[in-house]
Amino acid sequence: MAKLELSATEADKFTEQLEKIFDLVDTLAEVDTEGVQPTYSVTEMRTVLREDVADNAHQLEALLQNAPEHQETLIKVPAILTEE
User: Fold this and answer.
1) Which of 10, 33, 38, 46 has the smallest number of Cβ neighbours within 10 A?
2) What is the reported pLDDT for 46?
3) Where are the extended beta strands (E) located within the chain?
4) pLDDT: is 67 or 50 the higher one?
5) Which of 60, 76, 57 is nearest to 68 (CA)?
6) Which residues of 56-69 are buried (b: 16+ CB within 10 A; e: fewer)?
7) CA-to-CA distance for 80 and 39, rounded, in angstroms?
8) Does residue 35 come out as left (phi exceeding 0), alpha (psi in the -120 to 50 range) or beta?
9) pLDDT computed for residue 57 by the predictor
10) Residues 3-61: pLDDT tens digits?
11) pTM of the predicted model, to two decimals?
């Protein structure tokens, strides 16, 4: 964040917003949570994990047919970085 260049107006605006956030955090810190179990999820649902198995591994030809350009088994994409 030290590299951000802010105008005086922006700095004042962000300072005011940060002060409001800190005030909210201070208010939350005042809440009595003694004896309250931590909540890790807002629902009773639990994550059901499945075995990590590739089920479409033999679709290379179909994939390459949809690619505008490809070379062997690689899809060509436009460059997004230049030396400039």
Assistant:
1) 38
2) 77
3) 70-71, 74-75
4) 67
5) 76
6) eeeeeeeeeeeeee
7) 43
8) left
9) 75
10) 788 899 999 999 999 999 999 999 999 999 999 988 877 788 777 788 888 777 788 89
11) 0.40
Q: What is the gyration radius of the CA atoms in the chain, in angstroms?
A: 26
Helix/strand/coil for 70 = strand
14 Cβ neighbours under 8 A, 6+ residues apart: 6
Q: How far apart (Å, rounded) are the C-alpha atoms in residues 70 and 63?
A: 10
| Integer Cα distance of 60 and 74 in angstroms | 10
Q: What are the tokens at 64? A: 């390459």
The size of the chain, in residues, is 84
Q: What tokens appear for 9 in the block?
A: 């107006």
Q: How far is 43 from 58, CA to CA, in rounded Å?
A: 38
- Report the C-alpha gap between 27 and 23 in whole angstroms: 6
